[in-house]
Amino acid sequence: MIESLANVGGSQARIHGETITALPQDLYIPPDALEVYLEAFEGPLDLLLYLIRKHNLDILDIPMADLTRQYMDYVEKMRSIKLELAADYLLMSAMLIEIKSRMLLPKPAEIEQEDDPRAELVRRLMEYESIKLAGQKLDDLPQVGREILVAQAYYQQIIEVQPPTVSLDELMAAWQAVLERASKFAHHKISRDELSVREHMSQILRRLQQDKLLEFAALFDIRNDGLPKLVVCFLAILELVKEGMVKMTQQVAFSPIYLQIA
Amino acid sequence: MNEPQTIAEMKLVIEAALLTSSQPLSLDELTRLFADRMERATLRMLLDELKADWQQRTMELVQVASGWRFQARAEYAPFLARLSPEKPQRYSRAALETLAIIAYRQPVTRGDIEEIRGVAVNPNIIRMLQERDWIDIVGERDVPGRPSLFATTKTFLDDLNLRSLSELPPMENFAQVEIPLDL
Question: What is this model's ipTM?
Fold first, then answer.
């Protein structure tokens, strides 16, 4: 047991070791450091477990002095070659030293029953080890895409086209719309007089005199006038504004535009 | 084709549906195959028979967390693997440990994972597991900061050929513990 473990970790912990397998992915320490010392470890707990296994220490009665010394050896070696060390490792050093020092303190007789300072560390080590083993077991399970291949036969999905239903009302409405559209193309014969911009200017002025204030859109008879007439009407308005006969106002953008006599 | 009347016809309909589905089909989904009312018990019986019918074939009918699916028998996997150009990636130990903590201790927060592993959680691992749809956020712990609680999904169970979390391999305790804890 000791030997096999020593082989696993020992060869990888060699300084200037050539064999590099995989780097832990969640340690924020330089790759060099990992290659030399911590390659095989997933964190301080993992390193501690390794030390306990390697030296065949009793987890329920950890010799704190030995363990701390060995742990610090690793950590110090790393520091000596000026590698930044993951904070997690340093935190664990502090914790080990704290446990050791608490064990050194003489206990007054009346609180003899105080918990072993190592208890929390032991609990965490045990929990970590069982998770570590569980992770390996999960990896051993067959996985879809790896060992399990799911059947997936091809089939051509035929979508039946359901013709939409049409009601009589809808048909009528559609016909009405056609008639109305057709009517707009029907009266394109417009005489020259009708198309006079000047004439439209006077018509608009006349209407403005009557109504004082008119909305821009109200000047266009979209239903009855053809496109040419609408254009002429628009030109007439522009002309009126240009000649200062009509004033255009708008409160805010996109609100209705009003016209009035200047 | 008319509505299936006999057991044999019903089994064929189920078979066709299962073989063409990209996802495992649940009992609810399978009942929708039939216009007439289908008892779940009948459906289970049909599935059992179908499973037996395929006993000698290359595909087997299995039940996983989200339903039933056909999959190649394990002995063919090595041959099928030769078809894929690259070897499927294996997860790092960090990823496996993170996954194990979420699977066995769920629902857990990042803090819980860090507490057990003794190192900071790599956000890439969490993201990778979420992208695979193996874990998701099931809520928040009611403590300051409201950390997210992670749990494993049905897809995780499906992908590992499991019907429920209780089928996960049992957790082992610290390997050499023989003496009772007396601290």
Answer: 0.76
